[in-house]
Amino acid sequence: MGSEGRERTAILVVLLVVSGGSVIFWMSFDRPLEAPDWHGEVKGVSYSPSGVYSQAQLERAVAEGVIRGDLEQLSMLTTRVRTYTVDRGQDRVPYIAKELGLTVSVGIWLSEDRHLNEIELAKAVRAINDNPGVIDRVFVGNETVVRGELSARAVTDYILRVRRAVADEKVAIGTAEVWSVWLEHPEIARASGFVGVHILPYWEGISADGAVNYIADRFGVVQQRFPDKPIVIAEVGWPSNGRIKKRSVPSPAVQAYFLRQFLTLAAARTYDYYVIEAFDQPWKTASEGTVGAFWGIWDAERRPKFRLSGPLTSFEQWPAYGIVAAAATFLIGLAVLTLIPTVAIMGYTLVGGIIAMVVSGALLIVEGSSLRYPDWGTLAATLLIVPAVLFAALLFVTETVEWAVSLWRRRRMAPPSDNLIIPPRVSIHVPTHNEPPAMVIQTLSALARLDYPNFEVIVLDNNTRDERLWRPVEACCRGLGPNFRFFHFDNVKGFKAGALNKALALTDPAAEYVAVLDSDYVVTPGWLRTVMPAFAERRIAVVQAPQDYRDDSDSLFKSLCYQEYTTFFRVGMVERNEHNAIIQHGTMCVIRRRALEEVGGWAEWCITEDTELGLRLFEAGYQAFYTPDTMGCGLMPDSYEASLRQSRSGLPGQRGCDRRRARSRLHRR
Predict the structure, then answer these.
(1) H or E segment at 589?
(2) Which one, of 568, 570, 544, 546, lies nearest residue 624 by Cα?
(3) Is 424 helix (H, G, I), strand (E, B) or coil?
(4) Which helix (H) or strand (E) holds 365?
(5) Which residues pair with residue 48 across a beta bridge?
(6) Where does residue 101 fall: left (phi above 0), alpha (psi -120 to 50 degrees), or beta otherwise?
(7) Using alpha carbons only, how large is the chain's radius of gyration in Å?
(8) Contacts of 651 by beta carbon, 8 Å cutoff, 6+ apart
(9) Which residues sit opposite 233 in a β-bridge?
(10) Model confidence over 422-467: pLDDT tens digits?
(11) What string of DSSP letters covers 526-543?
(12) Which of 250, 318, 471, 590 has the most CB atoms within 10 Å of its CB?
């Protein structure tokens, strides 16, 4: 088998392994849930009409046919329903329930609007008195105190009014609040015929495993406080979707697990209760967040969401997700791995594994995004998020590819020969401006130790007004001999490029190459001897060595910055070199003088003159070469603020460079 065949085989093996790993990953979410089967009747279910998706729909009257269909479905599970309001046609519930043989616990919605409260009371009393024997209990208000809309005293007054208005004395009159409100306001219990408590472990962040014990504990606390009152669990349930709240994880399987356990406990302890709720209520997302839509036993279209008997596992949908993840990983991986350069098996494995991670990550977002009942706001947010997620995924994969080919590429560009029969003359340009003289002198001393026989150094100080900064550097150059020449100029225009163009004009005519070095860089003696052989290839105009630093251990900030810098020069630039796409930097670079002059020298309009020159050289048909060996180290910014100023100073130049390149292309067209 040839090398091409071995490469294809390696790619297929890797893709099969990572695709299989995707299936195993999704399978790992599924585990058996030990919960007893429930075949009995549910004692009570809270009811709001199905098919209400928005606040606008909520304001419209519910058709009697919808109520009838809902109650007929509910009658297969329970003989008692609890309502929350008699508004918008729901006062018809007792009349229809009477035909179906259902018992109704009527809810009267109370709010801070006293006028609407009076309308609610009048409708409710009429419906209750019209249906003797159908109503067993009346909930005067629902969490009205905890919402802060009415005081405990006001709710008590409403309870007493309803008690006087209802003809049947057997109908229990009370209210429903979260369990803690009853402990804080025991005066409500004195007026109530029962204590209606809401115990919802999800909102407390309780795990499903501990939820039933939590309910029993809270029930016991309330019962101990009110031993002479019937305790009714007015709401108990678990959502099937939405955000995780501490240890509470919503899902259809966990909802079934919770209900099976609770129904078994309630039967054993003879609890009176109402499961919240019959049907999903998507309109609740406006007030409760996404999770508010998913408390139903059935969804908003009356379809069942889980089973109350039979085997139960935590993630029954895993085969579908596993198949999609494996297929997408294989197809995307095949496209990517066949396009990248040939790498070792470790490289293919890394890229394939990251693709599998990205695909499954996207599916996890889909699974957890709760898009079952989207509104316009959700859709708009999705449209904003999806491009961002795709961009992040693309960036993650491309960065991984760069790492893989940098570390495990099979075939690389041949290094230049190290034979220099006649070393060409190199003019090293060191521009300075307001630099500490000791630092510059250290740079020049290192240049004096270069193991290269044919070079000059031009130190060009521009616009430094304080002579105490540049006079010592001038003296140092005199002491280092005729190969070191110092110049000071005032009123130099054009940023660093202006200084470099002046240095170019002062360059020895015999110099065939120009090297640029920042004034803080200390080079190794072998710098020029190492890089100059690359120019044996006539199309190479630039040889770039890494920017490296010698003060990374000075502080944690510098250490972290160094990791960012070194990654770019050890990985990014190494790979770009294989595609003749390196970024030229304004230090540790050597440029063919003829090419530099051919493209017009340094661009004085641009702050990022180094990158801009590199682009012009590429456009002129020249090539660049990058050597990853460190041959000089500079100094990093001392603080975050200094680093930020340095980064910001380059942005305008880069933008200007981009704009000018774009205009140039348009003019050529």
Answers:
(1) strand 589-592
(2) 544
(3) coil
(4) helix 345-368
(5) none
(6) left
(7) 39
(8) none
(9) 197, 273
(10) 899 999 999 999 999 999 999 999 999 999 999 999 999 999 999 9
(11) THHHHHGGGGGSTTEEEE
(12) 590
Asked whether 254 and 314 are in contact (CB, 8 A), the reply is yes
Residue for token pair 């990791």: 563
CB 180 within 8 A of CB 221: no
List alpha helices for 369-512, DSSP H.
376-408, 437-448, 467-480, 495-505
Amino acid identity, position 476 = C
Give the model confidence (pLDDT) of 280-308 as tens digits: 999 998 888 889 999 999 999 999 999 99
Name the pLDDT band for 575 (thresholds 50, 70, 90). Answer: confident
Structure tokens at 291: 């999770």
Contacts of 60 (CB under 8 A, 6+ apart): 88
pLDDT classification of 654: cutoffs 50, 70, 90: very low
* ∠ Cα 463 464 465 (to 5°): 105
d(C-alpha 112, C-alpha 151), whole Å: 10
CA separation (Å) from 647 to 459, 493, 640? 25, 21, 10
Taking CA atoms, 648 is separated from 190, 643, 651, in Å, by 70, 9, 5
**632-634 and 522-523 as β-strands: parallel, antiparallel, unpaired?**
antiparallel
Strand partners, 344: none
Cα–Cα distance for residue pair 129/164, rounded to 1 Å: 12
Q: Which of 459, 397, 457, 415 is nearest to 433 (CA)?
A: 459
The token pair at 135 is 């109503």
- Structure tokens belonging to residue 339: 């396009």
Q: How far is CA 305 from the centre of its chain?
A: 29
| Tokens encoding 1 | 């088998």
The conformational region for residue 600 under phi > 0 = left, psi -120 to 50 = alpha, else beta, is left
* Both structure tokens of 13: 């093996």
